[in-house]
What does this fold into?
Amino acid sequence: MALRPVVRHRYEAVIVGAGGAGLMAALEASKHCSVAVVSKLYPTRSHTGTAQGGIGAALGNVEPDHWEWHAFDTVKGSDYLADQDAVEFMCQEAIRTIYELEHMGLPFNRTADGKIDQRRFGGHTKDFGKGPVRRSCYAADRTGHMILQTLYQQCIKQQVTFFDEFHVLDVLIRDGRCCGIVALCLATGELHLFHAKAVLLATGGFGRMYQVTSNAHPMTGDGCAVAFRRGIPLEDLEFFQFHPTGIYKLGILITEGARGEGGVLRNGSGERFMERYAPTLLDLAPRDLISRAIYREIREGRGIEGRDYVHLDLTQLDPHLIEQKLPDITDFVRTYLGLDPVRDRIPIQPTAHYAMGGIPTNLDAQVVVDETNRVMPGLYAAGECACVSVHGANRLGTNSLVDIVVFGRRGGGQIAQWVPHAEWVHLSDHAEDVAQERVGRLMTNVGGEAGARIRAEMQQVMMDQVSVFRTEGGLRDALAKLAELRVRYRRVDVRDQSLRFNTELEEALELEDVLDLAWATTVAALGRRESRGAHYREDFPKRDDAQWLKHSLAYLQGEQIQLTTKPVTITRFTPQDRVY
Amino acid sequence: MRVEVKIRRFNPERRAKPYWATYRVDVELTDRVLDALHAVKWHHDGSLAFRRSCAHGICGSDAMLINGKNRLACKVLIRDLRQPIVIEPMRGFPVLKDLMVDMTGFFEKYRAIKPYLVTQGPLPATEQLQSPAERERFDDTTKCILCGACTTSCPSFWANTGYVGPAAIVQAHRFLFDSRDHGTDERLAVLNDQSGVWRCRTIFNCTDACPRGIEVTKAIGEVKKLLVKRSLSPPKPSSK
It folds into this structure.
């Protein structure tokens, strides 16, 4: 096996991923120490840019609001699985973080008196559940785009160092401490070894394990997977959010903001069916609940013409409002469906959207590796790849953007404080071996398996058996299929033997990552014998707080995944029935 | 249905010169060109290199020349194109491999216009106020996704790749017309340079190419007017 040349770097901190969490961390950390941001995409291509509807914070600009209400909604939305200390921290920090983003230049929509405008969003209520509240700060329906652009602009101003189009292959751990990463430089095919005192993983989610997803192609969970293979547990993977309104078949997101502005869901007979499922919040109930309602309508034959989709109806909205506040989704519907939301109802189906689970962290974004929350020095995680846990079993709309900016900044700040006092951990002589082996094996395989086929089969079985409704039998079938696919993966070969921009190699590497995460997700889903938030077991349809008010941790041990649990932190909100 | 896709291939590790390759792939009429590229990559030739990410026109990764026009591969549907569908890399940037181009120079120009809010004095404890009308003034140019379609459709840029180009001017516009910004002088110095905004010949290719529907030529015109206005009446320090 031909070894690739290795280029060595030394930075006090390395941040992997250049979406909202990574850039926020970079801005904070690079004020005080040497930082490299390593990203497989050019930063402005990151998936944060596709977030549409808004970022939640109790500014109270258009009606009274309090961070405690935001915290309550987040905890209730999480089906009481979120750690409440983390939620309280996030909802308080959200407010000053929004002002900070505005000061950085983020072009929020404005109220008549010049303040940041706010709109309604699913599950966000006033006075602990008494009705919808306008909490989502937004920039038309491209809030994520504006956050990503603004943070990248600030990184330019602050002269942050970027390694663009570098794909992470391994995270280095020695004597229980993290000491760097290895990445593949896509332009040259060389390996780059980054020796660091601190590493922050901000690699985003892994919706590409599903066939219908709102997630960008590169969302394959690389950071989660490389950590997992190094023995770091993954928390609460069984909770994967399906967003109710993906464009039929394509999965492209139609923001909840469309319903926040007055859009409603209708079934095949034109009925506003959410009246039967969530009498108070209706079409602005949380996502898990609405996605299940849509699946039920379809199962019971009330899809459009009896088929597997329903309608999002914006036709009763003021056309001017649609153009002004929802221009992008209007463009998507016109481009991809040839329909006009002003006149036509939009065919939608739930689309795989967001991983609530991920790499376990504490409030300081430090990675914690067991049920006692023992810290792994030098390793941090933030954003969708992390699980702090503020989203518990189901994330509320707008809270992903809150999460990335609040905990990205927190992680960056903590690194800046810690790094000056931390000792360097010496790298072993074989630091790059795992990375060399991963690349070398794929380049020399002659097994004749096509990665694209394995990926398609994985996405199909995950969609069929590990999505909105789950059963023991279905999950076991999925496990068997995934085991077969993991065996076949070892025979995947890469035909393109060139070094530069070998995107066939990159896709094969991504497949290994997302396949491992699909496996772990399925194991975790089989383990949790209750229904909570986005995890719905038809064979265990009730939430079971006595047995299951706890987080799951999945560890890779050899060729097995071991599950264990850890307690949920409850501060002020006692679990109650979740009615909307 | 089966469609024919003709792609300009280039991999200097294999062959010194670019060449054309034709593929027949199975796609739906409502599929995107990106789906056809994936069909080639996943079922015919894995070595085909192109960038893509979000696949719905927001991330700006997959701008390329499709049937002679700069388009995002994820925003053009097969049904709207004549066959064979001819796909080439954007013009004016060095080609790295197949449809991947070197955008280093593009982003250097972006950085040159200081693409960040320049504030002055202490900031308020809450948000800076901005009226809806002030916010609307630069709304169009906030849509830019830095895909490069405008700059690489511009004959002035082809003639002189030192030209700062429409994308950087759009980015400058986004700040120049933001009521909160105080960086006008620094930016206009760059734009008034011989490689600056005056190289624009108002050909409108950029507006036609923009996948976000930004009125690029209009934005450039507004920047030109701002420059003229300020050369006639030099601003007082620290005002707009």
Remarks:
- Chain A touches chain B through 59 residues (CB under 8 Å).
- Chain A is about 35% helix and 20% strand.
- Residues 503-527 of chain A form the longest helix (25 residues).
